[in-house]
Amino acid sequence: MGRIRLHATVFLAATLLGLGAGGGLALAAPPPGTCHNPTPARPEIAQLPWAQQVLAPDRAWPFSDGAGVTVAVVDSGVDADHPQLAAKVSRGRDFYYLGGLPGNFDCVSHGTAVAGIIAAGEADRIGFRGIAPGARILPVRVSDRDLTDNGGAAAIDPVVLARGIWWAVDQGVKVLNLSVSGPVDNGHIRDAVAYAVSKDVLVVAAAGNHQPDSQFAWRPSYPAAYPGVLGVGAIDIDGAKLPSSQLGDFVDLVAPGAGVLGPTRAGGHSYFTGTSFAAPFVAGTAALVRARWPELSAAEVTRRLLATATPARGGKGSPGYGAGVVDPYRAVTDGLSAVAPAPLPPLTHPAPDVARLSAEAWWRNASERAGIGAAAAVGVALLAVLIAVVLPRGRRRGWAAGTAAALPATPVREELPEQVFLLPPPPVER
């Protein structure tokens, strides 16, 4: 089967941040000849990341940590030697190279970061942990690099991606993470995703990254736009949508995706940005729900994730935020009912009490009459006082207009006793 390498095919939607030298604890061992110029190990980062602080998945772990659920990470592979992923990653399979190689190695850390956000376990002095640390990871390797030599997104062969999805579904996974996106509706990938949905696999896909002024900004992004797929957009630490996170009705939820921490190949950690790294927060939450509520179908798990989402800036159902921000604790613990709410009884007005209304009206009228009478009595009294004062004075003046007494030509000086002068009196008084 020939390889399809078209630029407009599906590509990885990811941007790596914080790439630098450093030493790690693990020594990944890719098969000989597979990793050309692999990214180096990174230093460990001990601080608790902001995304884990905001989502607080540890609140859900007393009820579910994802144990018993396997999540397929169809990506660039997963470094199974990383200390926080050891014993959690299956052998998997490599569909990028021929020869039946495993998928549990990674040349660029993209898939390792995605897997770690889903299921990384505890490590001494490290604050970072995955959303579902009890879950297992099935690595399905469908790409070798996430970026081209000039920094652009590396294309993925859609046939290879489709084969990886089909194989992962046949391994019995419950959740499938696709941190890939592209503007082309490819028949091979569409059929593979439809197969996963038909097998009750919950498919989570990145919404994709495009600049707001890009010609693809409002176009559907695949596989997020396929029926039955949970499309995930990215937000930053302030809860605002990343400018590059795509818009559309295929965005069902949002999750942290700006400067989020993840493990890297050969050990250590780094910060990553993009919807590729928002999707695994939702995939990990789906693993928590599938472990806690194993009787729920994939569609029912999706409804639970949407119903328990935290409201986001765009409002419910907005093209940038979907139903809101994924909430692991509520997704696991909230009690939901499939029964529609009972209709409210019709509003009835009680029959009026005629006797009571008549009594109230009588007292109201009586109070008003008493108030008017009191005001009239006060007015009559004031008038009588006015007449008693004004009438005699008017008669004395012959009803002529009164004038004030004339002021004296020279002011009358009051003579004060001598003792009040503390200084000698003025010359005029001597």
UniProtKB/TrEMBL annotation:
Biological process terms in GO annotation = proteolysis
Subcellular location per UniProt equals: Cell membrane
An example Gene Ontology CC term for this record: plasma membrane
Q: What domain of life?
A: Bacteria
Q: Name one Pfam family in it.
A: Peptidase_S8
Q: Which UniProt keywords apply?
A: Cell membrane, Hydrolase, Membrane, Protease, Serine protease, Signal, Transmembrane, Transmembrane helix
Q: Does the keyword Protein biosynthesis apply?
A: no
What is the protein's membrane topology class?
Single-pass membrane protein
Q: Where is the Peptidase S8/S53 domain?
A: 66-324
Q: Where is the active site?
A: D75, H110, S276
PROSITE patterns found in the cross-reference section: SUBTILASE, SUBTILASE_ASP, SUBTILASE_HIS, SUBTILASE_SER
Q: Which Gene3D superfamilies match?
A: Peptidase S8/S53 domain
Q: Which residues cross the membrane?
A: 370-391
Signal sequence coordinates:
1-28
MF terms per GO, please?
serine-type endopeptidase activity
The UniProt entry's sequence similarity note says:
Belongs to the peptidase S8 family.
Q: Which PANTHER family match?
A: CEREVISIN-RELATED, PEPTIDASE S8
Q: Which NCBIfam families match?
A: T7SS_mycosin
* Record protein name field: Type VII secretion-associated serine protease mycosin
- The organism is Crossiella cryophila
